[in-house]
Automatic annotation (TrEMBL):
The active site is at K90 (proton donor/acceptor). One of its GO terms (molecular function) is oxidoreductase activity, acting on the CH-NH2 group of donors, NAD or NADP as acceptor. It comes from Sutcliffiella cohnii. Gene3D superfamilies: Leucine Dehydrogenase, chain A, domain 1, NAD(P)-binding Rossmann-like Domain. CDD domains: NAD_bind_Leu_Phe_Val_DH. This is Leucine dehydrogenase. Belongs to the Glu/Leu/Phe/Val dehydrogenases family. The keyword Oxidoreductase applies. Keywords: NAD, Nucleotide-binding, Oxidoreductase. NAD(+) binds at G190, L191, G192, K193, V194, G195. Pfam families: ELFV_dehydrog (PF00208), ELFV_dehydrog_N (PF02812). PANTHER family: LEUCINE DEHYDROGENASE, VALINE DEHYDROGENASE. One of its GO terms (biological process) is amino acid metabolic process. The keyword Oxidoreductase applies.
Length: 380
């Protein structure tokens, strides 16, 4: 790689060091609507960047940047693991999803997405819903996951939750020798779009639950469902979720929740959930392994939504989405086997598999001829 000679000898380049793994960062500022957002494109080797947009009241711009850098990198790996022809990108909007949403804010966001001219496609993540993006869709076609009546493939949290269930089954099979969900207890953190749907399926399977959420309405909804079905449910407050005597921890809210403080509290035998970036640092994968806790790499388990929105950009096909989501079960079993055979952690095994796949695919993507249109002729 060529290194440029910099006038000041390369000092004060901290920001470029921080984003050194990424291709492009876009800061979006719209005075009229109050929009403050960051779009990060990590890698487009496999195709245009694709990733949801999170809305959160970040305390600092640095915290928002940190989040979007980590989330967009995760998407590069998620796309590779799910074998979709897209690259890694993500966006964050700085604001309170309960107070700061307006149609105009999302239209302004759509205008920034459009300015990237097909390099970035986006839809929902934590704090945003498909309806928010109906407004953004008025400004750009690079929106995924809106309702079918608007031409989208619908709520992507449905296949995400389905994928989590396949991930839980593969995890149970590896730990207990059976992929039944029944007979085990699950500690779910976050009962939003994905977490609630996972809880619903676990309740239907007759599993016992521990749950927590900061939103009382979300808790009421799930406890009513559990009671109507006659399964055991215990609601716990905040941090208590880490120390409950459940079999599996299912994080479905924030990232970074597997860290030095929480690992010591965990009593579970496995961690498998939808939250992006569950490990605060890669070393926490090793610490979990040393404690005998099986970790299901998040970006493999939670790829169902990505599979659906990627599919939508070519031509939606629900049967194909289901087939590819079901494959999460086998991909995860392969990762567990690689980890065990090579004495590496499950996240190291998953990362290695994705990096090898990106490297192999990049050689195919280098080939250009006038007769053969680029394979990335997705909706722009
Ligand atoms: N929506 C999707 O299809 C996908 C979501 N994910 C990830 O899954 C996670 C959940 O996403 P969604 O369900 O879409 O978000 P959501 O915003 O619909 O739900 C998140 C839930 O977590 C709760 N929550 C927030 N902070 C909490 C805390 N400290 N303790 C307990 N609960 C808390 C919220 O009140 C909310 O009910 C996120 O990490 C997201 O990035 C990953 C892949 C796809
Ligand atoms: O679910 C989506 O809309 C996009 C996929 C995504 O952002 C994710 O998997 O984190």
């Amino acid at each position: 790689m060529k290194t440029l000679t910099l006038a000041n000898g390369g000092k004060n380049m901290d920001m470029f060091e921080k984003i050194s793994e990424h291709q492009q960062i876009v800061y979006c500022n719209d005075k009229e609507t109050g929009l403050k957002a960051i779009i990060a494109i990590h890698n487009t080797t496999l195709g245009p960047a694709l990733g949801g947009c999170r809305m959160q009241p970040y305390e600092t711009v640095e915290a928002a940047l940190e989040d979007v850098l980590r989330l967009s990198k995760g998407m590069t790996y998620k796309c590779a693991a799910a074998d979709v022809d897209f690259g890694g990108g993500k966006a964050v909007i700085i604001g309170d999803p309960l107070q700061d949403k307006t149609p105009e804010l999302f239209r302004a966001f759509g205008q920034f997405v459009d300015s990237l001219n097909g390099r970035f496609y986006t839809g929902t993540d934590m704090g945003t819903t498909p309806d928010d993006f109906v407004h953004a869709l008025k400004e750009t076609n690079c929106i995924v996951g809106v309702d079918e009546v608007y031409g989208g493939s619908g709520d992507s949290s449905i296949p995400t939750a389905q994928g989590v269930i396949y991930g839980l089954r593969a995890t149970n099979k590896t730990v207990w020798g059976t992929d039944d969900l029944y007979g085990k207890s699950y500690a779910i953190q976050g009962l939003g779009k994905v977490g609630y749907k996972v809880a619903e399926q676990l309740i239907e399977a007759g599993a016992d639950l521990y749950v927590t959420d900061i939103n009382q309405h979300a808790i009421d909804k799930v406890t009513q469902k559990a009671k109507a079905s006659g399964v055991g449910i215990k609601v716990v407050k905040g941090e208590e979720i880490y120390s409950v005597p459940a079999d599996v921890f299912v994080p479905c809210a924030l990232g970074g929740i597997i860290n030095d403080q929480t690992i010591d509290q965990l009593k579970v035998k496995a961690v498998a959930g939808s939250a992006n970036n569950q490990l605060l640092a890669i070393k926490h994968g090793r610490i979990l392994q040393e404690k005998g806790i099986l970790y299901a790499p998040d970006y493999i388990v939670n790829a169902g939504g990505l599979i659906q929105v990627a599919d939508e950009l070519y031509e939606p096909n629900k049967a194909r989405v289901l087939t590819k989501t079901r494959a999460i079960y086998q991909t995860l079993l392969n990762v567990y086997e690689e980890s065990s055979n090579n004495n590496i952690t499950t996240i190291e095994a998953a990362n290695r598999f994705c990096e090898q796949r990106i490297e192999a695919r990049s050689r195919r993507n280098n080939f250009f001829s006038h007769e053969k249109r680029p394979k990335w002729s997705v909706r722009v």
